[in-house]
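TA notes. Do not distribute before section.
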Amino acid sequence: MNDIVQFIETSLGVKVNVGAFMVTSFAMNWLGTRVKKMPRVPDELIPAVLAFVGMLIYVALSLSLGTYSNASWAVGIVAGGFSVGMNQGFRQTKSLVVGPPTASTEKPQSPQNNADSIP
């Protein structure tokens, strides 16, 4: 976590509130698991949703803690994006420890009624 914060601080030239960054990242990770279960939200939009909400939460936290700067908006976007990477890290680590899934949960597709599928 310190490497990420140091990278952000040197790239943006701004002091990052580590507590607000961690709270935002973990909140976005939690929110991402909830949004993933919503059938109306396509998977491709989840990173954008998390980046936007992460931006709002980090800015609100930095305002309330008195550490707000103009770069807080960008740090919030990075915190939302970090949560996507954190989620993928959890998934990949779990598959390394537990192993890959053994059975497919997909339903078999019914045969199509077209000329190409007839033997």
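Switch to the second chain here.
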Amino acid sequence: MWQLADGYRIGDIVISHTDLIDSGGTLLIGDRGTVVGALSVNGENELLCEFVNYALASLSSDQVEQEVSPGRALAVQGPQLTTGVQQWQLGGFRTLAK
């Protein structure tokens, strides 16, 4: 898969963090879509995403959130999270037990 800006890849599932209603369709916060490419708008790299009710949306990476599929690890940097559940270490990643 092609690696895009901010760690996104073509085929990644994303969740919209923005509302967009125009001639392209209707995109609402929480809608799921698929990254299909990237482009540059006014010198800024954006993701080209396809949604069910919006054909192709050009969105910055802060307008979407990557949906993590089962088995795909996320590395979290910064302060430790306190969740009240048992935590265990796996290969350098902190994993929260279910």
